[in-house]
Design a protein that fits this description.
By secondary structure, this protein is α/β, with parallel strands linked by helices. It contains one helix and seven strands. The strands form two sheets. A four-stranded mixed beta sheet has the order 2-1-4-5, with no helix packed on it. The protein has a three-stranded mixed beta sheet with strand order 3-7-6, with no helix packed on it.
Length: 116
């Protein structure tokens, strides 16, 4: 009986620790290059942070659809952090590529594809 009580108490304590443990957020880097973003798709989760680093030769601005969020001007070698919330749009734009086409990037909550 005592062993059964100990096992039940241990199981309850283990479950409580798992439930009460905070989710660990991650930081992901997106480089703003002349003509595009690297990576083009960033695999992340809600609560994570995307850090945009301007690795181009000029000041850059990154924005969500309909200016739902904007970085403002990011100077050369500067950065901007975007915290991913439930309502954060999963696409972003800013600048044009070498052919004059708007450059776009994407955030995906799907698991990253694995190399085979």
């Amino acid at each position: 009986m005592l062993n059964s009580f100990r096992m039940s108490t241990f199981a309850f304590a283990a479950a409580a620790v798992c439930i009460a443990s905070p989710a660990v957020s991650e930081e992901h880097t997106v480089l703003i290059e002349d003509g595009g973003y690297f990576p083009t798709i960033t695999y992340a989760m809600q609560g994570d942070t995307i850090v945009f680093i301007n690795d181009s030769d000029a000041s850059q601005t990154v924005s969500g659809p309909d200016d739902s969020w904007t970085s403002g001007a990011i100077p050369v070698d500067g950065s901007f952090e975007l915290a991913l919330m439930e309502d954060t749009p999963l696409t972003f734009t800013g600048g044009v590529d070498l052919e004059g086409v708007d450059i776009e990037g994407e955030i995906s909550y799907e698991p990253a594809p694995l190399d085979e």
